[in-house]
Amino acid sequence: MKTILALLIFAAPAPAARATKPCGPDTWFARNDRPAAEWKEAAKWVVIGKVTARKEILRPFPNCHSADRSQCAMQGASVITVKAARWEKGVNAGKRLKLSAGFCAPEPPKKAGGTYRFYGREPGAYLFFEELAP
Fold this sequence. Notes:
This protein is mainly beta. Helices cover 13% and strands 37% of the residues.
């Protein structure tokens, strides 16, 4: 009887361990190849502006429970400063914006100086951006 029980325990399939991904490939926002019209429809605000600065910020991952948070693995959270030239959708929120990547959004532009169109749903976070010709 013990042998049968031991076989049943070891033969039973274990549930698959799955890591949750912050943005799966099947989510709507993960597809960056959408036309600009679709991004504009999904966005609550759209602004055209020039990136004037980029600041790298390192933060501990949220699942770190160490008392000394400096010992945690760190994640990057870049913040860009955008000088708004024109608002195409939404309420004009000013001329200088501090933006970071929202859920599923691509990393912000690496260099300052380029002109971009940013699409967003929440204040301070963009969903997508596209570089515009100078």
